[in-house]
């Protein structure tokens, strides 16, 4: 019956003996016997097998393998060229064959002749009239490939958003298709300069695809880029053609993608299509967190140097925000150091002003990040010295410039201790900026390093900058300066505690915004500082309100740390000196609150 004939033909098309396959391909009326869907699937499998054998050199008879592949291609075009439902499948079948490879040259040249029979938008004006014409082109295979890729690039860029999905779908199961697609993308960015909305649309379409493919290549574990040469970044696709014969296609594709990423960010800069902050951050995090981030070092430097916002402010976000991977923090600090070494006058003041942000990673737990941060302060000091010698700082900038130089010198002198013991840096600031007695961790006479006016200017400089950081960055700086005592309650910091206490006082309202863990820790730290101040002779009436409010649990039984920990922070710091220093009416209120708190804690 018909079913038996169909099964027999399908077995023949799948036979290991290609002469059997060739005979099956020449059966008249195949589409009627197998149906279009089964026939298309069978032809795709046969062509894939033949191309694989030719590329790997595993075929015993190159001539027969090539003939079967060409027959398969002709049959596919003959059966399906006027069936619009299958046209994109036929276009995908022939796509990888448009890249002429030394191992498949005869098949490739035949495909370039046949492609004009496929009415597919991306294939306009890429065909040659005959194989003889193709081989007569000066420069042989490389010239053919460049001509074809340039034509494909022009067709692709005519409607990139419409064409990109077909390209991606066509590359799903073929590494060679991916190679040709990446060549097309690379040439597209070289030949055509999209502007404005066109570039944004192109970036939005291409970047997610490249990112996913890069991560897939890296996760596969068979890509080697240890000896990557940055000179490759300036290549066009023709420079890679010599590698088609010998290179592992996956490694070749990785190199071409590195170039595409480079051309993508270069195109944004050269055509005035400045990337917005979100795109820059996405690119930076992607490059910096890659397993092969060394191939992206030039990309990272370029992003930092050519962003539309302040380079220093952009980079500081990566090491003052919470949850940023250590690898990204290290790369951002290295980029910061790179900018310090450059001679761009417009960045110099910004880089110096952002110094307090470097204290956040320097005070962190990760040793690699701490080392990178210290290296950054070294480069910042070198920058300070160059500016100091040039005499370019004057006017308002001079007020902080001098003490910043002294502060950078201090860190340089103590960097061995800073890096060897995380506790040293807070102790160093407590001794040099605070009014307390000498700390045993710190060398002698550090408390006399700065006079009082200089201490106040340094504290104002660091805290003023810290208030621009994320809550995590604020917490790290406040924790670092906790040892300076009540001086931390700078006029710029005190309102922050007031806002927290207002929110804390309104905590019983359902509409009240809940505290994050970081906000709770900031509030507890500031309450502890105020409690210590109240317990000293310098305590004042203005400090009483937030402390008493922190003790007002008002019968609440919530186990939310944001409700309980501020109260505990105050209780841990109270003593008799604090209590006797309060007015009588305040002593009564405090006693009542302590009693209520005790009842609440035991209820």
UniProtKB/TrEMBL annotation:
Annotated GO MF terms: snoRNA binding
UniProt organism field: Trifolium pratense (Red clover)
Domain of life: Eukaryota
At3g06530-like ARM-repeats domain boundaries: 123-311
Any one GO biological process: maturation of SSU-rRNA from tricistronic rRNA transcript (SSU-rRNA, 5.8S rRNA, LSU-rRNA)
Lineage: Eukaryota, Viridiplantae, Streptophyta, Embryophyta, Tracheophyta
Cellular compartments per GO CC: 90S preribosome; small-subunit processome; t-UTP complex
Record-linked InterPro entries: ARM_At3g06530, UTP10
Protein name, per record: U3 small nucleolar RNA-associated protein
């Amino acid at each position: 019956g018909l079913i038996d004939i169909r099964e027999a033909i399908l077995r023949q098309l799948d036979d290991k003996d290609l002469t059997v396959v060739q005979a099956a391909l020449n059966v008249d009326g195949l589409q009627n016997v197998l149906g279009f869907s089964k026939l298309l699937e069978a032809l795709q499998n046969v062509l894939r097998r033949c191309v694989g054998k030719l590329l790997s050199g595993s075929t015993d008879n190159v001539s027969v393998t090539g003939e079967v592949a060409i027959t398969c291609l002709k049959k596919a075009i003959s059966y399906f060229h006027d069936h619009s439902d299958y046209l994109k499948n036929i276009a995908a079948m022939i796509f990888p064959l448009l890249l002429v490879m030394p191992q498949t040259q005869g098949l490739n040249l035949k495909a370039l002749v046949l492609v004009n029979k496929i009415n597919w938008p991306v294939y306009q004006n890429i065909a040659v009239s005959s194989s003889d014409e193709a081989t007569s082109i000066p420069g042989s295979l490389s010239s053919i490939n460049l001509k074809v890729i340039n034509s494909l690039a022009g067709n692709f860029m005519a409607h990139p958003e419409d064409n990109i999905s077909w390209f991606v779908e066509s590359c799903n199961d073929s590494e060679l298709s991916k190679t040709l697609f990446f060549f097309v993308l690379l040439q597209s960015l070289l030949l055509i300069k999209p502007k404005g909305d066109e570039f944004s649309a192109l970036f939005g379409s291409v970047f997610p695809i490249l990112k996913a493919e890069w991560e897939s290549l890296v996760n596969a574990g068979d890509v080697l880029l240890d000896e990557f040469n940055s000179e490759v970044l300036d290549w066009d696709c023709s420079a890679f053609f010599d590698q088609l014969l010998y290179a592992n296609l996956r490694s070749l594709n990785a190199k071409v993608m590195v170039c595409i990423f480079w051309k993508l960010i270069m195109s944004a800069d050269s055509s005035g299509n400045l990337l917005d902050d979100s795109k820059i951050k996405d690119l930076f995090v992607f490059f910096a967190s890659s397993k092969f981030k060394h191939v992206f070092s030039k990309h990272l430097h370029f992003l930092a140097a050519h962003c539309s916002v302040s380079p220093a402010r952009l980079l500081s976000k990566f090491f003052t925000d919470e949850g940023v991977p250590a690898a990204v923090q290290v790369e951002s600090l290295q980029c910061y150091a790179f900018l310090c070494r450059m001679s761009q006058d417009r960045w110099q003041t910004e880089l110096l002003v952002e110094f307090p942000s470097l204290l956040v990673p320097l005070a962190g737990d990760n040793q690699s990040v701490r080392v990178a941060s210290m290296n950054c302060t070294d480069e910042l000091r070198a920058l300070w010295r160059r500016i100091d010698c040039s005499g370019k700082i004057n006017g308002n900038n001079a007020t902080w410039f001098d003490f910043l130089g002294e502060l950078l010198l201090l860190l340089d002198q103590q960097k061995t201790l800073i890096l060897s013991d995380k506790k040293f840096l807070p102790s160093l600031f407590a001794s040099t900026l605070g009014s307390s007695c000498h700390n045993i961790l710190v060398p002698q006479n550090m408390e006399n390093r700065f006079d009082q006016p200089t201490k106040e200017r340094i504290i104002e400089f660091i805290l003023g900058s810290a208030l621009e950081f994320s809550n995590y960055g604020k917490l790290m700086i406040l924790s670092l300066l906790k040892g300076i005592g009540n001086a931390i309650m700078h006029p710029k910091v005190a309102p922050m505690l007031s806002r927290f206490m207002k929110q804390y006082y309104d905590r019983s309202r359902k509409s009240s915004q809940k505290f994050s863990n970081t906000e709770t820790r900031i509030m507890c730290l500031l309450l502890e500082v105020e409690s210590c101040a109240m317990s000293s002779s310098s305590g004042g009436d203005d400090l009483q309100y937030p402390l008493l409010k922190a003790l007002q649990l008002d019968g609440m039984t919530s186990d939310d740390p944001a409700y309980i920990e501020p109260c505990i922070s105050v209780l841990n710091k109270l003593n008799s000196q604090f209590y006797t220093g309060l007015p009588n009416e305040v002593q009564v209120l405090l006693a009542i609150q302590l009693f209520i708190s005790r009842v609440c804690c035991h209820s």
